[in-house]
Structure formats: structure tokens, C-alpha cells
From TrEMBL:
The keyword Acyltransferase applies. This is Beta-ketoacyl-acyl-carrier-protein synthase I. SMART domains: PKS_ER (SM00829). Keywords: Acyltransferase, NADP, Oxidoreductase, Transferase. One of its GO terms (molecular function) is 3-oxoacyl-[acyl-carrier-protein] synthase activity. The lineage of its organism: Bacteria, Pseudomonadati, Pseudomonadota, Alphaproteobacteria, Rhodobacterales. It is an enzyme of class 2 (transferase). Residues 14-324 form the Enoyl reductase (ER) domain. It comes from Cognatishimia activa.
């Protein structure tokens, strides 16, 4: 194995064009870490925010973008249990996934589900960690409850629809075209709402309100989400595509006993992420291996075309996940 590797670096804050191929030293695993030879890396919106200078990686993380990958473990650091060289894994990463090799805590690795290719497995960690921790742990979604996810055709949305449906919830989703709405319905959404043509607030009110809403839009959606919630409903916020600041009537939160919460995944502790991995392995991996849940794939780009992948993602026309082939 060479001491240097190809990687995509952010040359300066800016648009997709600032992503450039460079040579970097191959990192060496420390205590509790594994080194993965990357086959595919997932492309996610936090990568674009980092590229634009709006999302700083934690001080201990690689400055290279990339928060998930699938590949083969090629080196194991001290104090690693349960993994060995040659194991195929998909992994949540602190950063650095847009490269030929990447480090991650061994507890953030999961086995590639039986029967699944590495290309699909690379799409699992970021979205499944995010959806599981926010919809089921933080949001407490239960069978029979009414669940609304915005951005239903995104990587997060397609994952949330499938998991909520698999665990017995009534699923509603918003999306911006009939094509995207149809995908949501095929994945298990009882109703897909084209937000350009219908008001999700009225749709959900007619159904008695949402017990849980997962939102990454923010902005004008925030007061509308509050209106769409049922008594004692919960709103979980995971991003702000329209911005985080808005005028909001908090009296409704008191009067209807609503819960408003949210989280980001990357800054959480290694232990917190390890616990999510354990829950996914126990409760979700059997669904993946049984074919009840699967990642929705949009497109694949080479590492050299990372800028094109970012342009596609920010354009919003994609359905499901985008990956880089390393």
C-alpha cells in the first residue's frame, strides 16, 4: 500500500468548482480506529455546506469532505474488537470519505448487509443514523401514529418513509413534482403531497394532525409545521434549507402540549454514535437483509467528478442518494 492517496479537497470556500483532486498522506489508525479502503463514498448536504464554508468539521476530524463510505478494512488500530483486516463494512465517518482511504472509530462501522453491493451500502450510514436517531429515538415514533416527512424524495426522506412504514406508522410526505411524489408512494407513503400544488397543513389537519414531523426545510415551514401537528405532537428539526429564523407563536406549543426538538449528527460523541450503530444492527439491518428496506439510488460519479455530484445535489432534481466511486 502506498503512503499517498488520491482525495478530494476543498481548495477554498465556494461553489462545487472548489472541489479538486489532490494527493494526501494515507492516515494511520489510532486507538479504537480502523483504516478503510474506500470503494464508494456517499454525497450528502453537509458536505456541500462544509464546501461553502458554512459547516466546520470538528477539530479532531479530517478537513476532507465525506461522512459515509463502504469498503474494506485494511488496517486496525490498537483496542479494536470485532473487526479485522479484510472485513467489508459501511461506516459513518467524522470526515474524509472523499478519498481512497479513510479513518473512523471501529464502533461506527456496520457490516455490509447480506446480498447488498458496496455501492448501495455506502448510502446507508449517514441517512440511517440520522433517521433512526431523530425519528425513533428522539421523535419516539410508534406504530399507528401519523408521520410526516418533508423532502420525501431525498436520501433522508426515502429512508424515513421506508422505516416508518416498516414499523407500522401512517406515512405522509411532501415533494416537489409528481414523479417524486410517486416514488414516495411506492416506498410506502399513504399520501404524497406536491407542495407546489397543495397545502400540507390542510392535508394533515384533515387526517387529525401529525403525531410526528421530520423537517429539514425550516423557514416558512416552521409555523406551518406547528399548525399541522396533532395534540401532543412532536416536531424534529434536522436542517434549515430555508433558514433557521422565523416568527413563531409559542402559545400553540403550550396549549396543544407540543414538543419541538432537533439534532445534528456530526458533533455528537463517539459513544452516542456507537449506540446508534448498535440499535441499527439489531433493529434495522434485518429489514435491509430481508429486502423490506433498501437505499434509493440516484446516480454515481467518479471521485474526479465530485464537483458534478455536488452541482446535481444542490440543483435538487435527484431522487435518493448520490455516490462517488473511488
Amino acid at each position: 500500500m502506498s503512503d499517498v492517496m488520491r482525495a478530494v479537497e476543498i481548495t477554498e470556500p465556494g461553489g462545487p468548482e472548489v472541489l479538486q483532486i489532490s494527493e494526501q498522506f494515507v492516515p494511520v489508525p489510532g486507538s479504537g480506529e480502523v483504516l478503510i479502503k474506500v470503494a464508494y463514498a456517499g454525497v450528502n448536504r453537509p458536505d456541500a455546506l462544509q464546501r461553502a464554508g458554512l459547516y466546520r468539521p470538528p477539530p479532531s476530524a479530517s478537513p476532507l469532505p465525506g461522512l459515509e463510505c463502504a469498503g474494506v478494512i485494511v488496517a486496525v488500530g490498537p483496542n479494536v474488537a470485532g473487526w479485522k483486516e479484510g472485513d467489508e463494512v459501511c461506516a459513518l465517518l467524522p470526515g474524509g470519505g472523499y478519498a481512497e482511504y479513510v479513518l473512523t472509530p471501529s464502533a461506527h462501522c456496520l457490516p455490509v448487509p447480506k446480498g447488498m453491493a458496496l455501492r448501495e451500502a455506502a448510502c446507508l450510514p449517514e441517512t440511517f443514523f440520522t433517521v433512526w436517531s431523530n425519528v425513533f429515538d428522539r421523535g419516539g415514533l410508534k406504530a399507528g401514529e401519523t408521520f410526516l416527512v418533508h423532502g420525501g424524495s431525498s436520501g433522508i426522506g426515502t429512508t424515513a418513509i421506508q422505516l416508518a412504514n416498516a414499523f407500522g406508522a401512517r406515512v405522509f410526505a411532501t415533494a416537489g413534482s409528481e414523479e417524486k411524489c410517486e416514488v414516495c408512494r411506492q416506498l410506502g407513503a399513504e399520501q404524497a403531497i406536491n407542495y407546489r400544488e397543495a397545502d400540507f397543513v390542510e392535508v394533515l389537519k384533515a387526517e387529525g394532525g401529525a403525531n410526528l414531523i421530520l423537517d429539514m426545510v425550516g423557514g416558512s415551514y416552521l409555523p406551518r409545521n406547528i399548525k399541522a401537528l396533532a395534540m401532543e405532537g412532536r416536531l424534529v428539526q434536522i436542517a434549515f434549507l430555508q433558514g433557521p429564523k422565523v416568527e413563531l407563536n409559542f402559545a400553540q406549543i403550550m396549549l396543544r402540549r407540543l414538543t419541538v426538538t432537533g439534532s445534528t449528527l456530526r458533533p455528537q460523541s463517539d459513544l452516542a454514535k456507537a449506540r446508534i450503530a448498535e440499535e441499527l444492527l439489531e433493529k434495522v439491518w434485518p429489514l435491509l437483509e430481508g429486502g423490506r428496506v433498501a437505499p434509493v439510488m440516484d446516480s454515481e460519479f467518479s471521485l474526479e467528478d465530485a464537483a458534478k455530484a455536488h452541482a446535481l445535489m444542490e440543483g435538487g432534481s435527484h431522487i435518493g442518494k448520490i455516490v462517488l466511486k473511488v
